[in-house]
Amino acid sequence: MLKISALYIYPIKSLGGIALDTAVLTDRGLQHDRRWMLIDADNRFLSQRENAQMALLKTALSDDGVVVSYTPDSSCVTIPFLPQSEEMLDVTVWDDTCRAQLVSNDMDEWFSEKLGLPSRLVYMPDDSLRQTDPRYTNEGNINSFSDAYPMLIIGQASLDDLNTRLPEALPMNRFRPNIVFTGGEAYSEDTMKHIHVNGIDMHGVKLCARCVMTTIDQDSAKKGREPLKTLAKYRLKNNKIYFGQNLVHANEGILNVGAAIRVLEVHEEERFFIKPVEII
């Protein structure tokens, strides 16, 4: 039996994540997941891809908002759930442009100081409706500031298999999933086309192409070559390295650790990896 073993949200895009026992699934993903984002002077999103030190900013939830801690000096700030500013602007996430709300000047100054580069913090209000990638999803599916889809699912067996191939085992936080599950074979998430959890219908729409963020140690912000070097040996397809699958959902509800995952439909084998191909 497949069961949810971990749930994660990442309130501020590209900063540290939070493990939850229970999560509310909203119209655009798990509640608070990537509803905030740091942008540069051109209103474009900031990412660990270019700024690895963002990994040193950790997040937690409190009654008052999102608490962000900077690990090198243990300083922290609390971001209220609702922005203090009324100023709206257009921001860019990859090829998408959507409306966002500035949070406050104080937050901009704090993040700029910690990261050593001009940064502004923005929030996605409820009336900002950013569509998912139309090449793989239907009209009406929306997401927050995540790259292109509301959720990412990875099987624990997939990471376990990868770790047997690596010179040093890596934690799941390198891959930033929202849902982790136990049970099934390694990479069984590849084939999930329609799954059912706690009365919620979810659809696997695209394997997740991985980037250099997976090579950044989330505790030290140091970069390496793994896991991309090893994954390229058996998870390379069309010049992209895949690990995990992106999900969209048809309805809202509650997810919890321990909930059973029912697989109702699978993708055709020729479209997705089923088992890793050994490279001799």
Automatic annotation (TrEMBL):
Record InterPro entries: MoCF_Sase_C, MOCOS_middle, Pyrv_Knase-like_insert_dom_sf
Ranges where the MOSC domain occurs: 100-264
Protein name: MOSC domain-containing protein
Signal peptide: none
Superkingdom per UniProt: Bacteria
Short name of one Pfam family: MOSC
Naturally occurring in which organism (per UniProt): Mucilaginibacter pankratovii
